[in-house]
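Fold Annotation — chain and its backbone
Encoding — discrete vocabulary of local shapes
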Amino acid sequence: MKLFFDIPFLRKIDNDLKQAEKTNSLCIIDNILSNYDHLDIYIEEDSSIKDELETLGFDDDDSSIFDLGGLSLPGKIHKKISSFNSNWVDSIENELNNLNEIDQVLVFTYEKRNFQELEKKGILCFNYSNYVKEIQAIIDICHIKIDLSYELKNIKIGEYPKTIGNLWNPIKDIVNKLTFNKIVINDKYILVNNYNQKIEKNLGLFLNQILFSRKNITIDIYTSNFIQRKKNESKPSITEILKDVEEKWNLLNSKISDNKIGIISNLEEKEEKEEKIYLKKMDFHDRIMYFNYLVIDSTKGFNLMPHIPSNSQIIFETIFNKYTYDRIINHNNLIIEQNKFIIKEHKKNKGKEPFLFFPKEGPNNWISKIKSTSEK
């Protein structure tokens, strides 16, 4: 995760950390700097600090400036930041505009700045006047559970019963609280499209709700069950599966054509009558949606409508919980390994393998996306 600060913001929160009473949002920032791993820190240069450093004989790129305590950075904060990969930058805006990839990027400035276009690209931006309220709002709205044991009209969201007409409405509201530029979905049955699991009433509806005003969002759907047959019916052929996958990709793409959808196999490897059904580099068991800063767990999967009361629940949490932050990183690493394995199988079988991913051709062919992800 990349964190951007300007010096005035750091000085203010350094002073706030010395106070007896601390807000939950301040404690979250403190926890990120104290306990989170895999952080890159970027600090915007302050002209007065630069003059002080030059007077003492330090160059701009001298890493020892992070050990100068209260001179270059606030006393308590500098000890935390100095343990990470830390960098001075001339301008936060310029640095953000030059990022090749935006995965998890948080920006903290003292004054409010015009970051609207950057936020649309998936960057979370805060200033000293709003960070307490905004981070707490994210916790209140996005760290929540939905109890699916109730009838729809009395569904329990968090601690309170709500009257809703469709389960996707509160999910949409939670997701829209945070910016994002990618969605990764793992659910073996999300594209089955049975009479009681219609795509248009579930994933199709949801994507249309959250993406109608967004562009260039990448959606990766890891799944494996497409055509459901009765036990006494023959299994679908590879040709039938590939045709079905293409039809469902077209159905989803017709609703959100300004975004990029990929359907990727998460089938396990097994032999059946000398036929290789297919592979698994990791166990894709749980039904999960990943966004840049948010994870949604649904034990029964994401074919939620029509709603039937069950013993399941939907759990939402963000990276402001360290467990969830670590979980996103670990799962992403496993997915990258899975993607590498898929590329290897694709090359080995020279494109004649069972279903691996779609689309394979055209301007949005998914092999290029998988390669770029796997090579990072």
